[in-house]
Structures are given as structure tokens and as C-alpha cells.
Amino acid sequence: MFLVVFDFDHTIVDDNSDVHVNKLFPSEEDRLNADKNRSQFDCWTDYMQDKFRQLQRFNITEDDYIQNMQEIPLTTDFSHLIKYLYSISNSHLIIISDSNLVFIEAILKHNQLDHMFKDIFTNPAYFNKDEQCLMIEQYGQQTCSTCPSNMCKREIIEKYMRTKFSEPIPILYIGDGHNDVCAANGLKKGDLVCARSGYRMAKELKQQEELGKHKLEADFFEWQNGKEIEDYIKEKWIK
């Protein structure tokens, strides 16, 4: 048995879903006006709720959000990678993302990948039909001083491992961003960290080792597409 942890934005999908909704504003001027409130929010998730409130003024419907998400392409070869990992009998796939449940479920269902993940950890969201507004809440975290208030992926993994499995199992972690670094630093020997080349996760992990701040215990691999990850784990990780 092994656990596969996927990030979502710029990992499974080749875009930031929270940014992609900007296309729903009728004009660039409307988007810029909505973004004037950005400095009022310490947490990105709270800022997104304000953005959804701004979009509500333009009568954006639930179907509009779903269609907007369906436009986002998957990262190259990630559909094949997910299906390959799912096909392995002792694999256990989950998603941990700072996006939200409405966006993630819409994209997974559109690409017929939703049944392949055991669990999704993300900011709760739903479309309030009475108010005609997309609502989002912080997922929340209590233990980490370095991660944002709404989510620490390391905390989620550690709790998941304690409650889901009777003994330690190897972890394959696939991500790209700054909020994946804390989780990667918590992984152990025998685990594998796959960081997207040219993105903050890879840059920060290499920088912290160069500065002598922290060296990963897990193996490290930089990727540009899903096929590179699949080839690497077939050759060097899956026994």
C-alpha cells in the first residue's frame, strides 16, 4: 500500500482555478474594481469569498462557474498518470488543495476522474441558490505557524496517516507551489516528492538545502509533465 497526494492547481490542472474565474467578469474594468478589496484580506480564501460576492452582482450562475472550470485544461499527461496510479491495486489517491470543492469536483467529473480519488481535502464550498452566490469557507488548521490559517497540508497528511492506516506506508507527493513545501519537508526516507520544474515548490526546496536550512529526507524529482513522473516512479520508486 502507498499513498499518493496530489495538489490541484498547476498540478492536476494547468492553471489556477481561483484566477480562472476572473474570466466571468463582464469586463477587465469590472475585474479590476473587484480586486480593489484585496488588501483587506489576510487569507486568500476570504478574498475569494469577496470575489464571489462581486461576481454575484453580475448574475453569475452555478452553471457559469461549472462551465468556466470545464474550460481549464489538465496538465499534460496527468489524466494518464492518474489512471495509471489508480490502476495499481495497492494505491490510495487523495487531493489536498487550496482551491475549493465546487471547482475541483466540477473539473474531475468533467474529465471522468472523480471516482479515482478516495478523499479530497480542500476549502468547503457550495452554491447558495437562495442568494445565487458561490460560498466558500476556510478548511482551517491549528498546528502550523508557517502555513496560512486556512490550510497546512503537512497537518492533513499526518492526521490522515494516523487515522487511515494501521502502519506507516510510503507517500508519493505531487505538487508545485509554496504551500506544498511544508508537506514535503515532513516526508520521510522512502517517500517521494515530485515538484513541478520552474515553480515555487521546486525552487524553495532546492534553495533551503543550498542555504543549509533543511534537507529533504524523501527522494526528490522535478517534473514538467505527467509522463515524466510516471516513467520515474516505474523505474525508480515502485518496487
Which terms summarize this structure?
alpha/beta, single chain, two-stranded antiparallel sheet, globular, 10 helices, 239 residues, 39% helix
Q: Roughly what percent helix?
A: 25-40%
Q: N- to C-terminal separation? A: 11 Å
The total of helices stands at: 10
Percent of residues in beta strands: 15-25%
Task: Provide the residue-averaged pLDDT.
Answer: 95
- Order of strands across the widest beta sheet? 3-2-1-6-7-8
Q: Which shape, going by the Cα principal axes?
A: globular
Count of DSSP E strands?
8
Major β-sheet, in short? Answer: 6 strands, parallel
> What is the structural class?
alpha/beta
3D structure, described in words:
α4 (62-70) packs across α6 and α5 (78-87) runs parallel beside α10. The longest helix is centred in the N-terminal third of the chain and has 13 residues, at 44-56. A six-stranded parallel beta sheet has the order 3-2-1-6-7-8, sandwiched between helices. It has a two-stranded antiparallel ribbon with strand order 4-5. It is built from ten helices and eight strands. It is α/β, with parallel strands linked by helices. Helix content is 39%, strand content 18%.
